Amino acid sequence: MKPVIALVGRTNVGKSTLFNRLTRSRDAIVADVAGLTRDRHYGQGRLGGHEYIVVDTGGFEPDAGSGIYREMARQTAQAIAEADTVIFVVDVRAGLSAQDHDIAVYLRRLGKPCVLAGNKAEGMQESALLAEFYELGLGEVHPVSAAHGQGVRSLLEAALEPLALAAPGEDDAQAGEADTIRMAVAGRPNVGKSTLINAWLGEERLVAFDLPGTTRDAIRVPFEQQGQKYELIDTAGLRKRGKVFEAVEKFSVVKTLRAIESAHVVVLLLDATQGVTDQDAHVAGYILESGRAVVVAVNKWDAVDEYQREQLHRSIENRLAFMKFATIHFISAARRQGIGALWPSIREAYQAATCKMPTPVLTRVLLESVQFQTPKRSGGSRPKPRYAHQGGMNPPVIVVHGNLLEHLTDAYKRFLEGRFRKQFKLVGTPLRLEFRTSK
Ligand code: GDP
Ligand code: GDP
Questions:
Q1: Which of 56, 134, 357, 407 is within CB 3.0–4.6 Å of 390 for a Cys-Cys bond?
Q2: Which residue positions form the known binding site?
Q3: ipTM of the complex as predicted
Q4: In a domain, 255, yes or no
Q5: Do 37 and 125 reside in the same domain of the chain?
Q6: Same domain as 121, residue 193
Q7: Which of 304, 336, 353 is at the close of a domain?
Q8: Could you say which residues of the chain have pLDDT below 50?
Q9: Is residue 407 helix, strand or coil?
Q10: Does the residue 203 lie in any domain?
Q11: Domain total of the chain
Q12: What's the pLDDT at 88?
């Protein structure tokens, strides 16, 4: 399991800036996707071979009085509780504040591994200004400049050091049975996750087992549907109570992220009465970044009128433009409408995600595509794709080799992606294309 790092600190100390540094997109393709919202509070990154998840908790006031601030503080506290390690960010230019003290007290009480980042330290690494932060009682102050990328690597190493880092690839080892589709239902609180899961488990006469779960590990519910084995990874904090599953824990971002990570297929559940919200788009972005196959289900279809349905189609088109590869279902979990139709899409997405693409076929599709539409010349020379092979699965990666491929336009890359998708029926999964130019 990837370790989770929570970024904590008051507003304006540079948490978002640091977050962006720590989650620098691993794949240019993802960064370039139109419509993928950049304003995110969780993401993933990699240090050497080790991947991690970062959660930016927003401005944290442990003593927030009431209303929305109290709710924010509650969510932050939850994110911290679920994290493996905390990076507490302070602003060395602004100096130590009373609020920093409050946060430090809170963190010390938790006894979580915690490192202190003295941000905005560019040009003042040795400064006496750093010294006052030792007062916080959290040990060494790591001077960093999130804006300039200084000290970030050693900060990260310090944050991850106390954790026994899992060897890369361990996720695959715990993958379980080969022919089992691991799936997760992801979505905001109240979109209807529990209702959908219960409707499925009831109606389809699925064989579900009650499994013990610790607070830290999501429970997994194995079942069978039309001869196909599945394992449902819980995102909603579900526990079995009598005949139905009930959410006993509140919504948990970390649990959702972990479930997405370990699933083959994610059912992204939206609420028709709410449209596509920022949080939906964030979860969608995370699914894409994780390379997970996805089926979109718009729930509570029974509760919206024609006009709202129209609006909804449009907002899906705009806000989830980067998920055009996914099938969309309109369902009512409460009325058990449309929910059975999700299964074929889930299987299809799984097959696409784990599809094997032989080199000769890939190369043939590539060369036929080139013949159909030749890449444009750039500066007197023409890019020349020569052959392609599969570079990975789940998500599928196609590596295209040739000459001057750095001059291929984005439009041309999309054209190629479309041809590969069509040939291999890649519905419901992200597809990554990599281009390698021979020198
Ligand atoms: P957040 O509210 O904690 O998320 O803080 P932001 O990341 O939004 O940063 C707040 C302000 O501090 C912005 O104007 C940033 O440009 C600035 N900032 C962030 N990191 C640095 C840094 O390393 N050095 C300096 N000088 N400014 C920084
Ligand atoms: P979760 O937090 O995502 O697990 O959401 P729940 O399954 O607890 O559902 C939240 C609320 O939405 C409950 O009041 C449900 O009765 C309601 N709900 C769930 N599915 C539907 C649906 O298909 N139509 C309507 N109208 N309400 C629904």
A1: 357
A2: 9-16, 56-60, 119-122, 187-194, 234-238, 299-302
A3: 0.78
A4: yes
A5: yes
A6: no
A7: 353
A8: 26-32, 166-175, 204-216
A9: helix
A10: yes
A11: 3
A12: 96
Amino acid sitting at position 179: D
Residue bearing tokens 């300039």: 148
Return the H-helix or E-strand segment holding 30.
helix 28-32
Number of the ligand closest to the Cα of 304:
2
Asked if 341 contacts 383 with a C-beta cutoff of 8 angstroms, the reply is no
Ligand 2 centroid, distance to 311 Cα (angstroms): 21
Last residue of a domain, one of 135, 163, 191: 163
292-333 confidence digits (pLDDT tens):
999 999 999 999 999 999 999 999 988 888 888 999 999 999
Q: Which of 188, 193, 195 for mutating ligand 2's site (highest number of atoms within 8 Å of CB)?
A: 195
pLDDT at 388: 96
Q: Ligand 2: which of 190, 196, 241, 342 to mutate, most ligand atoms within 8 Å of CB?
A: 190
Domain ranges, residue 195: 180-353
- Tokens matching residue 2: 């990837």
Is residue 348 located within the same domain as residue 366?
no
For residue 80, what pLDDT is reported?
84
Tell which one of 7, 11, 17 to mutate to probe ligand 1, the residue whose CB is within 8 A of the most ligand atoms.
Answer: 17
Q: What is the CATH number of the domain that holds 371?
A: 3.30.300.20
For CA atoms 344, 348, 351, 356, give the dihedral sign.
positive
Nearest residue by C-alpha to atom 17 in ligand 1: 14
Q: Is 113 in the pocket of ligand 1 (CB under 6 A)?
A: no
State both tokens at 434: 């990599």
- pLDDT the model gives residue 16: 87
Q: Which residues are annotated as a binding site for GTP?
A: 9-16, 56-60, 119-122, 187-194, 234-238, 299-302
Give the torsion sign (CA, 115, 116, 122, 127): negative
